[in-house]
Every structure is written in C-alpha cells, then in structure tokens.
C-alpha cells in the first residue's frame, strides 16, 4: 500500500555544513535512554558525543512522574511482569523483547541505585513500591513522591559530568544522517544554536549513531510531551532508509488535567500512581466511571480507561470527566491536614500543579481528559537496538523494540530505555564500522513551512486522535497532502521541526487508516472489535525514492529481524551470573 499523492522530502533542505568534528559514537538524545547508552559505551569506544536538542534535562525523562516498573518486591517475579505487559500490549508485543525487559530490568534498576539514584524508601530501608494501571503487583519504584524522572535524570547527569570522555553539544537539532556507499552511517548533520566555532549547521563524522531522541507528542495539539518532542528522530531514520513500525499505536493518557478547550501544547499529567493510591474516576453525576468496565476498575490498562472516559464524554456532551482523590490521606472526614500532608509527601509536583491552576485536590475534584502521552511504535529494531540501517541503533520512545505492543504498560517506558540502551552497549562496540566518507547524497531535499504546524496539530487531534474512523482518517490524509506541499526555501528550526512533524503524522495517519480493527490504543469506531485473524501483525512504513510512503503489513507479532545472540559474559547471556547480592 502506498500514498501516491503525498510527497515528503528525502532529506531536509539546509545550508552546507560550516564546521565539522569527529566521534566514534554519536548519541542523539539526553534522557534515560541516551545517557545510559553514553555511560555504558564510553569505556568501550574511543569518543562518545551526546547531542541534545535543548539543555540536557529538557526531554521527557525529567517529566516522568509515576516511576519505573520492575519485579523488585516480595512475591513478584519477572514472569508476572511479563504477563501484565503482554495483556496490556493487546497481542502486539514481541514476547522475547518483553522477556528481555522484565528479566534484565531488576538488575538495571539496582545499577541505577548504585549510580546514585535515590528512590523512595520505607522506614525499614526497603524500596517503597506502588501499583499502576495494568499491574497486578506493587512494582513501581518512585522518587521524590512523583518526581521519579527528575531524580533519575539528576543521577545520570551527575555521572556524565564526572566523565570527561563524554562530550555534549546542547541546543543541537539533528537534521539528517550522512550515509556511506553501502547505505550505512557515515555521519550526521546538526544545527547548533551556539557561539564560536560550533554555530549553525555542521557535520559529525562518526562510526555509529544511537538514536534516543524521544517521542512525537507535538503532532497533536494537546500532549503531556515537552515542546522538544517533534518526532525528529523517527523522521531522520525514515529518511535514511529505516522502517517505522506500528505508529498507529499512540497512547493517550487517560488522566491529563483539563485546562479548557483552547489550551494547547504540553498539558499537566495526573500520574496513574494517584489512582494506584486509591483515587477513582467519576462522571458528571458522581458515579464511579470504571465500575463494571474492567476487573481492575480504575487500574485497568490505559487504553481501557481512556476509552471509558471518552465514551462517557461523548454520551454526556462533557469536555472532561473527574478524578476524585479527596479521600487520600484522611484519617476522618474532617482531616484536611492529614490529606494535605499526604499530597505534599507523595505527590508534591501534582499537588503544586493543581493549586497553580486553581484546583485543590484535598477538597476539589480534578477535571481530566485523555491527551497524547506516548508513542508505542517507532523505528523498528531487533532485540539489540539495531535498525535496518547499518550503524544506526535506536532506543527508548523513538524505537519500536516490540516491548509495548499496542498499548504501553504503565511505567515500562523508563525501564525500556534503560534495558535496551544497555543491550546496545553490549553489541555496538564489536560492530563499529570504519570511518567512511559520505557518499553523494541523491535524496531529494525539501522543507515544509513552519506556518502549517498549528493546522497540522489541530487536524491530527480531530481526525487521528483518541477516536478514529474512516471518514476522519481520509480527511486527514487529504489535508496532509496539502500541508506537505506548503514548501519553503528558508531553512530554520521551525521549518525543520514542522517537516519532521508532517512526516511522522503522515505515517501515523496512513497506518491508522489501514488497520481496520480496534486494538490497544488504536480505537476505530467503525471497526470496534479486535480481529486477530486479519490484523495479528505489524504495519511497517518506508519512504520511497519518490517521497511517497509505502506501508506493508507484516503478519504475526514476532519481530522479523533476526537477533544475534549475546556474546558470552554479557549481562543478558544465559550463562551470566550476577554478582550483586540484590540481583542474585
């Protein structure tokens, strides 16, 4: 299946590089996935360069509230974590990828602790674990109450700062890969907003690129993602010849604070952990929304909760539902002080955010509605982070490792970035390519005007958001053709980002139209049932030489990239024996 009328650039129009440098490995992204990869690689390769679009802590990791999931508590096992992940993934997970995640996850979290991450503890010194949607065990480790991502980011940044062999270029947007004669990585072009020699467009000669650039939430007009999440990594990989897999599976978090119909951009998240502590959803009549909907009620997987909220919003004509957390921390009906102390200790960030928007969670219901939160699909990789482009690896939200399937299980995202970056570091040093001169770039260059960004976001929210159907997706496809044709000859960050957003939006809309079923976070009103007989498999998007998108259905849920076994002695090799007492 192709989109014959749509034409996307094969590379971004940009000035010729005005500066150059060299590194063995370039890591694009500075969240948990990128920094973990850099720290694990630096002692194995000559030089590691971390490229970050803004400052080092501006990505999605910092905003992660709930925590990181792993089988760390008494009675819990990786097999139970695997089972919960597979159920949430709605038949679209790669079982072996999930197995790698859950078996290697506990040791990876203990390594984070040894690195200096300060997770919340009980008085007896054991980890304080909570529960979130889709989990049958308390297995969510958290820090600072609801500031887990910020604490993990702090510890990783401290470790990077202590390692002089990791170089960082901030305020740098990765534009395109430079490819060698064999189609593999030879370098990457960047645009840097800096001073001195590295300002403007430049080039980094390198032997490998680890893509850890995060998600695509800014495709929609309401998202929990920060402003830097414009799908740059996915678009860069697609233009280089990589495959984007399962982009239709975009998770909409069910409990995002509703700030009004005109609110745009990044919206405040109300962590699932609030429901894990006992909060529940209610409708306009005060009735429990999730009663009878799912055995786990308010802790059902996110797609189930988001659909329940949206269904009630549509039937009632209300723009949002409500989260009732007024009873949390109370010893009695009049115990406002106890409730306040609970919020300030367990959810200080959410408490402060609510108050800043005129909502007191101790006494008020919190208005919530679903908003774009996480891309379960992304750049297709094997179990070791390899893409289809030699020398290009991907990890974290930008990647589709097979872990999340059609719907990410709560708090598995930080763990995925951690585990699969470690896996990349196990194989990449032995696969380093020689430095090579870039081949002549014959890809058609182009650029889409930054002026269409707001129209794109409104279109995608209206026609390819939580609720999807054929007429809406057809309209989205037609209008995307026009947006993609709105070209400009003036390269600047706004145009580069918008071109990337239109590129990933087109792949997303095409896949959403093709998948005629409801599965996980992909909800087709006109095809309300899950159809394993027809749709057990993946949708892979490729960019053709003429700039159109080709979409292929790959039957079966198993990855079709054959993984190479881990070298003996690697942490994921079956003969490995952990020597950390907490891992044994």
Shape: globular
- Work out the radius of gyration: 23 Å
**Overall pLDDT, averaged?**
91
Estimate what percentage of residues fall within beta strands.
15-25%
| Contiguous runs where pLDDT drops below 50 for at least 5 residues | 557-584
Count of all domains? 3
Q: Class of the largest domain, according to the CATH hierarchy?
A: Alpha Beta
- Which class do the helix and strand fractions yield? alpha/beta
The CATH level-2 architecture of the largest domain is identified as 3-Layer(bba) Sandwich
Describe the model.
- There is one protein chain.
- By secondary structure, this protein is α/β, with parallel strands linked by helices.
- It has three domains: 26-249 and 376-431, FAD/NAD(P)-binding domain, CATH 3.50.50; 257-370, Succinate dehydrogenase/fumarate reductase flavoprotein, catalytic domain (Flavocytochrome C3, Chain A, domain 1, Alpha-Beta Complex), CATH 3.90.700; 445-540, Fumarate reductase/succinate dehydrogenase flavoprotein-like, C-terminal domain (Methane Monooxygenase Hydroxylase, Chain G, domain 1).
- It contains 15 helices and 23 strands.
- The protein has helices at 32-41, 60-63, 78-88, 95-115, 148-161, 232-240, 272-276, 302-316, 336-346, 348-356, 412-427, 453-463, 470-484, 493-514, 532-535; strands spanning 11-12, 20-28, 48-51, 68-69, 129-130, 140-141, 166-169, 172-179, 185-192, 200-211, 222-223, 244-245, 250-257, 265-266, 280-282, 321-324, 366-375, 378-380, 392-394, 399-400, 445-446, 537-543, 549-555.
- Strands 2, 3, 7, 8, 9, 10 and 19 form a seven-stranded mixed beta sheet that branches.
- Strand 2 (20-28), helix 1 and strand 3 (48-51) form a beta-alpha-beta unit.
- Helix 3 (78-88) crosses helix 4 and helix 9 packs across helix 10 (348-356).
- It starts with 10 loop residues before the first strand and ends in a 29-residue tail after the last strand.
């Amino acid at each position: 299946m192709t989109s014959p009328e749509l034409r996307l650039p094969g590379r971004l129009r940009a000035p010729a590089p005005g500066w150059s440098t060299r590194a063995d490995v370039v890591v694009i992204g500075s969240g948990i996935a990128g920094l973990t990869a850099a720290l694990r690689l630096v002692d194995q390769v000559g030089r590691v360069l971390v490229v970050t679009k803004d400052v080092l802590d501006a990505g999605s990791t910092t905003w992660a509230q709930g925590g990181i999931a792993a089988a760390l508590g008494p009675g819990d096992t990786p097999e139970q974590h695997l089972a919960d992940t597979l159920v949430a993934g709605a038949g679209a997970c790669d079982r072996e990828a999930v197995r790698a995640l859950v078996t290697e996850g506990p040791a990876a979290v203990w390594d984070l602790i040894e690195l200096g991450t300060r997770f919340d503890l009980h008085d007896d010194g054991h980890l304080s674990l909570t529960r979130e949607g889709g989990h049958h065990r308390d297995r969510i480790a958290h820090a600072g109450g609801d500031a887990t991502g910020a604490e993990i980011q702090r510890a990783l940044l401290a470790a990077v700062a202590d390692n002089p062999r990791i170089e960082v270029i901030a305020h740098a947007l990765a534009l395109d890969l430079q490819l060698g004669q064999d189609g593999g990585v030879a370098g990457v072009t960047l645009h840097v907003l800096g001073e001195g020699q590295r300002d403007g467009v430049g080039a980094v000669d390198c032997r490998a690129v680890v893509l850890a650039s995060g998600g695509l939430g800014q495709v929609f007009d309401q998202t929990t993602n920060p402003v830097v999440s414009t799908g740059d990594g996915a678009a860069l990989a697609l233009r280089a010849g990589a495959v984007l897999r399962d982009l239709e599976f975009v998770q909409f978090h069910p409990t995002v604070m509703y700030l009004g119909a005109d609110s745009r951009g990044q919206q405040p998240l109300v962590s699932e952990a609030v429901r894990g502590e006992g909060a529940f959803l209610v409708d306009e009549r005060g009735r429990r929304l999730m009663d009878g909907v799912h055995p786990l009620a308010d802790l059902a997987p996110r797609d189930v909760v988001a659909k329940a909220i949206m269904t009630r919003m549509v039937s009632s004509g209300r723009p949002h539902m409500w989260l009732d957390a007024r009873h949390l921390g109370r010893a009695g009906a009049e115990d406002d002080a106890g409730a306040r102390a609970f919020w300030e200790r367990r959810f200080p960030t959410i408490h402060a955010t609510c108050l800043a928007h005129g909502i007191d969670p101790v006494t008020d219901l919190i208005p919530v509605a679903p908003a774009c939160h996480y891309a379960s699909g992304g750049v297709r990789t094997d179990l070791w982070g390899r893409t289809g482009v030699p020398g290009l690896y991907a990890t974290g939200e930008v990647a589709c490792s097979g872990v999340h399937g059609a719907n990410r299980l709560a708090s598995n995202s930080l763990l995925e970035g951690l585990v699969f970056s470690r896996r990349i570091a196990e194989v990449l040093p032995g696969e380093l390519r020689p430095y090579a001169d870039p081949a002549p770039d014959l890809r058609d260059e182009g650029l889409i005007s930054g002026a269409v960004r707001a129209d794109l976001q409104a279109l995608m929210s209206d026609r390819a958001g939580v609720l999807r159907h054929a007429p809406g997706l057809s309209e989205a496809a037609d209008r995307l053709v026009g947006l993609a044709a709105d070209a400009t000859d003036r390269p600047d960050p706004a145009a580069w980002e918008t071109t990337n957003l239109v590129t990933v939006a087109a792949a997303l809309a095409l896949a959403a139209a093709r998948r005629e079923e409801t599965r996980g976070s992909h909800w087709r009103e006109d095809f309300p049932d899950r159809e394993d007989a027809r749709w057990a498999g993946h949708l892979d998007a490729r960019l053709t030489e003429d700039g159109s998108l080709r979409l292929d259905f790959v039957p079966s849920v198993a990855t079709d990239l054959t993984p190479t076994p881990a070298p003996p002695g690697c942490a994921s090799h079956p003969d490995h024996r952990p020597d950390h007492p907490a891992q044994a």
